[in-house]
């Protein structure tokens, strides 16, 4: 009873109090007035940020993952926490329910504060431009509206001008539109909900080093219209700044950030932030392969009325990334990071978790009993098409993920365990075989092509108990499963008592997903549809070094 009361009180706490989690594996705040990049060492790709007073709110691409459009909050651009999501489901619902639509959905959102409302715009390359809005960044967010229909329209960013007129800049996805490497601008109605002009090409990167120009963000400062956009490729490119006295151009262009002699490859799209203290900063992502697209913070210095991002060169305007720098001016002393570990003690799922498709209750449910229940789902020998994988982003280059769980099985072949998911994946699972269980490693290469997993038995596990009073007789196995990650390699281990772990299986090389980094989490499957499904009860999940 006391546990339930405490849970209820916890849910009533303000977000700023309840969300003060500090990672054991990565914290950008060095505690001495400086920070180290990346400020978010997780896959928050295509980040955009809006400043409202002392507060900063960040969102990023979520593609087919649900809930989508994560909302992160910071008081200093260094310490971030997840405070919610703007999308409970990806729209249109029918396209993102059932089998996962990998790599589709929410591409490169832009968050703005306009007329007392928070708005997020994004392009779905197959549908068009969507918009959601809310009075508070924590929500509730209104259902998404399709404000511009079309194929290939991506990376949208609105700008409300001083006279109340609204403009929208965007890039184009060659896979849908048949062309790319151009930036276009069109006028919207004053509400920003309908296009009232056709697009105009204001920048063309074709045939130059500025190919693959994309991810534009629209701003106005000192009478100049600014478009910040990356070019040259996601993992190998650089950042451009375009300026004009008119929204439709013509635009001057300069390269303002590149890798130089740093390890920060292809500093890609992001957000220019002007703070209440008069400082300018730029957040951008770095593509780290299987770890996803992590977020860096760079100072912006003005030179001849051009922004130089990062370390200022002796000549020219192209900066290079800082690996460490002083923190932005702020009154906040809070050190916080996005949540990773989860005790599953609350009757809601932690905000760090996502599904591969729009959620349904038969995926799994939180409980008030101190665990999360993930139901087995019928699948073949490939988890790529399974909607109810419970996953979160990898939190650092090196970490250990450990979970305590119980597989409750009512039929032959039901299994559950932990997984490192991507286009290649590997899972350490417990599988029902006869009246006992087998620990096995399931590894798949090129899962997106439908290849079956290779299954390697590792150990026989006698059942730890049976349930005679359930709807159908069941046996269960309680176990601790672990993965240690370092330099892109995964090593699995298990324990029966939570103290003594034995390494098992073959090391696995992580691989990214479709436009996302590899993700860690849980799988629960069965070979055929049953009216008496099994499940895993996940007691806790812990991220340590």
TrEMBL record:
The keyword Hydrolase applies. It comes from Segatella oris F0302. One of its GO terms (biological process) is carbohydrate metabolic process. The keyword Hydrolase applies. The active site is at residues 46, 214. The record marks 155 as: Important for catalytic activity, responsible for pKa modulation of the active site Glu and correct orientation of both the proton donor and substrate. Residues 341-543 form the Beta-xylosidase C-terminal Concanavalin A-like domain. This is Glycosyl hydrolase, family 43. Keywords: Glycosidase, Hydrolase. Belongs to the glycosyl hydrolase 43 family. CDD domains: GH43_FsAxh1-like. Signal peptide: none annotated. Gene3D superfamilies: 2.60.120.200, Glycosyl hydrolase domain, family 43. One of its GO terms (molecular function) is hydrolase activity, hydrolyzing O-glycosyl compounds.
């Amino acid at each position: 009873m006391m546990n339930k009361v405490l849970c209820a009180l916890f849910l009533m706490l303000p977000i700023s109090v309840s969300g003060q989690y500090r990672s054991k594996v990565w914290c950008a705040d060095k505690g001495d007035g400086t920070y180290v990049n990346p400020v978010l060492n997780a896959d928050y790709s295509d980040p955009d940020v809006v400043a409202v007073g002392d507060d900063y709110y960040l969102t990023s691409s979520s593609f087919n993952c649900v809930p989508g459009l994560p909302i992160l909050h910071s008081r200093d651009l260094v310490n971030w926490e997840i405070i919610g999501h703007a999308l409970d489901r990806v729209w249109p619902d029918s396209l993102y329910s059932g089998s996962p639509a990998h790599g589709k959905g929410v591409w490169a959102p832009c968050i703005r504060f306009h007329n007392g409302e928070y708005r997020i715009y994004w392009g779905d390359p197959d549908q068009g431009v969507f918009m959601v809005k809310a009075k508070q960044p924590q929500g509730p967010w209104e259902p998404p509206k399709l404000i511009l229909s079309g194929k290939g329209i991506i990376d949208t960013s609105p700008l409300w001008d001083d006279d109340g007129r609204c403009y929208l800049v965007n890039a184009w996805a060659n896979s849908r539109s048949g062309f790319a490497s151009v930036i276009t601008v069109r006028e919207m109605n004053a509400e920003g909900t309908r296009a009232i002009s056709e697009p105009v090409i204001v920048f063309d990167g074709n045939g130059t080093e500025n190919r693959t120009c994309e991810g534009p963000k629209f701003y106005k400062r000192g009478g100049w219209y600014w478009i910040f956009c990356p070019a040259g490729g996601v993992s190998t490119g650089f950042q451009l700044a375009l300026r004009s006295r008119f929204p439709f151009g013509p635009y001057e262009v300069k390269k303002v950030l590149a890798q130089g002699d740093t390890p920060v490859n292809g500093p890609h799209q992001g957000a220019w932030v002007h703070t209440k203290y008069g400082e300018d900063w730029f957040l951008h992502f770095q593509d780290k392969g299987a770890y996803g697209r992590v977020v860096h913070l760079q100072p912006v210095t003005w030179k001849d009325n051009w922004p130089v991002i990062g370390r200022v060169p002796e000549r020219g305007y192209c900066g290079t990334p800082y690996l460490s720098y002083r923190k932005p001016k702020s009154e906040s002393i809070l050190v916080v990071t996005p949540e990773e570990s989860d005790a599953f003690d609350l009757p809601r799922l932690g905000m760090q978790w996502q599904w591969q498709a729009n959620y349904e209750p038969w995926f799994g449910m939180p409980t008030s009993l101190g665990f999360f229940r993930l139901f087995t789902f019928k699948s073949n020998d490939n988890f790529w098409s399974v909607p109810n994988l419970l996953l979160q982003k990898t939190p650092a280059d090196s970490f250990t993920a450990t979970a305590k769980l119980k597989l409750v099985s009512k039929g032959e072949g039901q299994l559950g365990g932990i997984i490192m998911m991507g286009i290649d994946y590997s899972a350490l699972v417990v599988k029902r075989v006869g009246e006992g269980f087998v620990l096995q490693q399931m590894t798949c290469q090129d899962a997106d092509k439908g290849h079956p997993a290779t299954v390697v038995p590792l150990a026989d596990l006698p059942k730890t108990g049976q349930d005679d009073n359930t709807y159908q007789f069941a046996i269960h196995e309680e176990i601790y499963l672990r993965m240690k990650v370092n330099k892109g390699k995964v090593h699995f281990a298990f324990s029966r008592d939570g103290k003594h772990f034995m390494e098992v299986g073959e090391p696995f090389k992580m691989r990214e997903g479709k436009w996302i980094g590899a993700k860690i989490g849980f799988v629960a499957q069965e070979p055929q549809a049953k009216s008496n499904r099994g499940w895993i009860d996940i007691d806790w999940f812990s991220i340590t070094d």
